[in-house]
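Possible regression after last week's pipeline update?

I re-ran a chain I had predicted before the update to compare outputs. Posting the input and the new output here so someone can diff against the archived version. Not blocking, just want to make sure nothing changed silently.
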Amino acid sequence: MATLQFSERAQGDFRIDGDPDELRARRDRAGAGDWTWLRQVHGARVVTVTSPGEHAGAEADAAVSAVDDAVLAIHTADCAPVLFHSAGSDVVGAAHAGWRGLVDGVLEATVAAMVDLGADRVIATVGPHIRARCYEFGADELDQVAERYGDSVRATTAWETPALDLGAGVRVALERIGAVVRVVAEPGCTACEPERYFSHRARADSGRHAATIRRGH
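New output (post-update):
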């Protein structure tokens, strides 16, 4: 059994270098317990959590666990948070997927780490992130993403400039992974819904959302 949650602006700022007391209070309201939160570096490193709170503060972009009451947390303000749970076991995972981590294979690495813990029939839930209509993107970087995940990642902004469809890239990556049996996408665009979401790219917001998954009874 797993409990998933994607926070919104109204629930407060979860950035890891915020006021410690306020951050602790927000975490308690969002999901009491020892959080494994990460210093995300836009890479593909995955940590395996063997006790609640283990690896808190580690430099990584994903975490997996098969331990009761482990809370895995990803923080975003445009990148795609992806939460995983296994329909055939109690293994859970959480990954931070910006375009660099996506190209580096963070989603594939996360599912592989879950499989190592006994996961099968993995369900992936993709949280709110910046959508193509708001994500103007450089040609060279767009070519890198398209080379790995195909031309479905190429899009156009609302003002008709080249854009990255990050969600399409995430979806293609997940659909190629044999252990993933279902992909669920939560609605929402962090860039064009300022009343609901923080956006670093659209508004230079310093705030961050928390995407959490908790394994429990």
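Follow-up from reviewer: compared with the archived run. Residues 2-215 form a domain with the CNF1/YfiH-like putative cysteine hydrolases fold (CATH 3.60.140.10). Marking as no regression found.
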